[in-house]
Design brief:
single chain, 159 residues, mainly alpha, Cytochrome Bc1 Complex, Chain D, domain 2, 7 helices, 3 strands, 6% strand, binds heme C
């Protein structure tokens, strides 16, 4: 039994690089979130939430509803252009990437540079990497919290 279990676990560890790779992935830490080894506190996340309200929420929802743009629930590691009932622009669909933290940084710095012709009418955080990273911390923390909640809901109940 033990041998079978180990045989199953080894390939997974080899793929992910084990605990070190887990640490490198964005993860929740208390009320905060760790991204690339940097802790964004609850205060940073609140700041990101208010920037989101000011600069993104007129188009994007976080309630699985499309407004003037596709909803952003679960955006961390979500394949791009994957909200089924949203009509994405042609250049955007052609990109075909995944929303890693790195791609979010590039996108939000200047969407038109990353995907020329995109319909996201937002100039980008050209002067404030701090504002950009706070919004990302907010979105990533929401994404991870939802994931954790879903995992809990689908986990078999304790006897
Ligand atoms: C004026 C409306 C508008 C604003 C403001 C806006 N966006 Fe967008 N966003 C869009 C549209 C439209 C798209 C789809 C782009 C396309 O199809 O070319 C998009 C796409 C995206 C995507 C990719 C979604 C996917 O399903 O692949 C992300 C991530 C994103 N926006 C984040 C943000 C964030 C964060 C902000 C605030 C800093 C923001 N956007 C501000 C309209 C907007």
């Amino acid at each position: 039994m033990r041998t079978t279990l180990l045989a199953c676990l080894i390939p997974v560890a080899a793929l992910t690089g084990g605990a070190a790779a887990d640490e490198a992935r964005p993860h929740l830490h208390g009320d905060g979130v760790v991204i690339d080894g940097t802790l964004f506190t609850a205060e940073d996340i609140d700041r990101g939430a208010s920037i989101f309200m000011r600069r993104c929420s007129q188009c994007h929802g976080l309630d699985h509803t499309n407004y003037k743009a596709p909803w952003l629930n679960g955006i961390l590691n979500r394949p791009s252009a994957s909200v089924e009932d949203w009509a994405y622009s042609e250049p955007f669909r052609a990109w075909g990437g995944t929303w890693t933290v790195e791609n979010l940084r590039t996108w939000l710095s200047k969407p038109q540079d990353m995907i020329p012709g995109t319909e996201m009418n937002f100039g980008g955080f050209r002067r404030s990497a701090e504002d950009r990273d706070s919004v990302i911390a907010f979105l990533v923390s929401r994404s991870l919290a939802d994931e954790a909640e879903e995992a809990e809901e689908t986990a078999p109940a304790d006897e």
